[in-house]
């Protein structure tokens, strides 16, 4: 888990750095109308994509490590073959239907410019499904390094192609879509190559014949249908907000969706490190389920949950406290109205992290009907809250709806995990949350006192070139980073004062540090400083 987390975190840092430059680029050079239209179309296609997957990617992440844990390579190979062939047929059919109905969909939203983008994104549906299958298989074999590289290849090319096409052909939603699709095609090519290498190493050759299909379908079909239902309701929560915003806000929809999209994207920084822990937990837990080692699984889940909180709470507190300055500094004053959206999404991502850890334990034991129940309730609440809150509160109402939905999923998943496996929240969880509240209060006070300074902050350059724009943003972000660092120090002090660290936490930290180039002596001193309360208790 430590090794997988390291690679996932390195990939996430690179991914966010590239995304940071990308969002500044489009906010600076592309109109809010076109940015909103691009994300509106992407949201609609996200909802459609569920029918081209049918839960096959999640089936791979659950069943491949499960059968590998049981030393059953034949069944693992059959799962892969079935997923690849079935998903290819499904996604091509869904893409063709999307292309043919693009005008009708655009007409339903009274947004004629939407039709052309949906035609482009029909191609993306096929490419994205190839990427999903490759990534799911790599995760199943715990190949987090290869998955991280593939994602970063795609993201880096998205930035490079968008910049090149915007400057050569002019900024528009169409140009953004073309660059987006081409980058996914290149990333998928890399992932396909890595997939072939992993399958060869594990001697999982394609299975000939079809006699094995029916028995295997009886095994995975109920799981797959349930997973696809979960994915469907998950996508409803992830993308229905933009569709409802587009339907209810009408003329102002594209601009508001642009603000909403960039604010929610920035909020994902809340789980930049902690998200990697839950990502590696699924194949680990599935393998332990195959070994029928419940005590070890419970221990892994408890450690994941505790470290998820450690690595996300200070970022959530910072993003909530500095939401307005962050949007103003990065994207300009026109995006500052998304401050409440950013704060609510940051809190929502924290609930999402907690719910994912609990849901992973259910999925590892094929108890996905419980997850389905949680997602149905959450999706219904999400749609209802969107309809009720968007008219009076706009994009902030939609952000509250997604936060509430994630909280519902966490509550339901935790209830059943405790009931089925006797799993309890790690000791000190609520003290940890209390520490986060204190950090937020400290950071909000700093933000209130420094907002005028941050807003007026300007760096003088002797050129007006594009590089100067990014240099200005990076320097301003560095100033904000000082406030984040102060919040992290306060949080670390509170963790030690409240005695929230365990000996195992130090062991995990030292395991993570072992993958860094830092000399052993320095690593030991850093560990002693971070966990000074454990030193004092000896």
The pLDDT mean sits at 81
Relative strand content = under 5%
Structural class: mainly alpha
Percent helix range: over 70%
Overall 3D form: globular
| Largest β-sheet summary | none
N- and C-termini, Cα separation: 28 Å
User: Helical stretch count?
Assistant: 21
Low-confidence parts: none
Taking all Cα atoms into account, the compactness measure Rg is: 23 Å
SSE series: HHHHHHHHHHHHHHHHHHHHH
Number of strands: 0
What can you see in these coordinates?
- There is one protein chain.
- The relative contact order is 0.10.
- The protein starts with a helix and ends with a helix.
- With 538 residues, it is an all-alpha fold.
- The protein contains 21 helices and no strands.
- It has helices at residues 2-29, 32-48, 56-69, 73-100, 102-108, 114-140, 144-169, 173-201, 213-249, 253-267, 274-291, 294-321, 323-331, 339-364, 368-393, 395-421, 429-456, 466-497, 503-513, 520-530, 532-536.
